[in-house]
Amino acid sequence: MRKSLLVLLLWAPFATALIPKPSERLDQAAKQAIQHFLLHNRVVDSPQDLDNAPYIVAAQGGRVLGTNGDRIHARGNLDAIQRSYGIFRRGKVYIDPDTQELLGINADDIGTARFLLADNLTTLAVQRVTQEIRPGDRLLRAEPPVALGNLDAAKSASFIEGHIIDIPKGITQIGVLDAVTLNKGRRNGLVEGQLLTVIKAGATVRDTVTGMPTQLPDERAGTLLVFRTYEKLSYALVLSASRSLAVQDRFETAQQAQ
């Protein structure tokens, strides 16, 4: 009993050190990574969010495609008070790996446009493009900015666990300052500023003595900071990683791992 208590006391400071203190969570590089990511990535909760959004009819002069600097014409409910709109196209559909529930749809960033005037069609000026604009691309209002300063505040939440389900950058291995998509969101209790611990499943090896397959223990592999939550999904930034992370790695709220 005494030996177990001694081991626990000696291990506690190292276990706590795995989780960044609030003041250590966001340096300038992390803030820039979040801001850049949010400029080019967005999730909508349902197909109807895109299907019912205003859409582009044509570019200036009736041309089919629009590029940077063009004027484009759109149909739908666009507000003159809202001067800037994002241009999006339906992208990857996110399905929960455990329940097969539709969690949301990635809205692929095409660019931004500025409201000019409204008539039978609304005219906008293209300000930024990532690829050619097509008829049918959708216009969405800007999301509220993330209060980066508030992400340093400690957050409390009940125990939550889930999986990394996507790497929006399209890479296969995840490292520090990469953003990932999680299969949990506001409805599950995740909040912006929440710290999560990533846990990689232990490998299965063959016991050379018994010949039986043996599951090695799971390992803590990194720390995530949730910076944008949706109803069923969230975005998180990798703050630390002791090894490469990957889609399907499990996460849990950091309080439980302290």
From TrEMBL:
Keywords: Signal. InterPro entries: Bact_Kbp. Residues 1-17 form the signal peptide. This is Peptidoglycan-binding protein. It comes from Pseudomonas haemolytica.
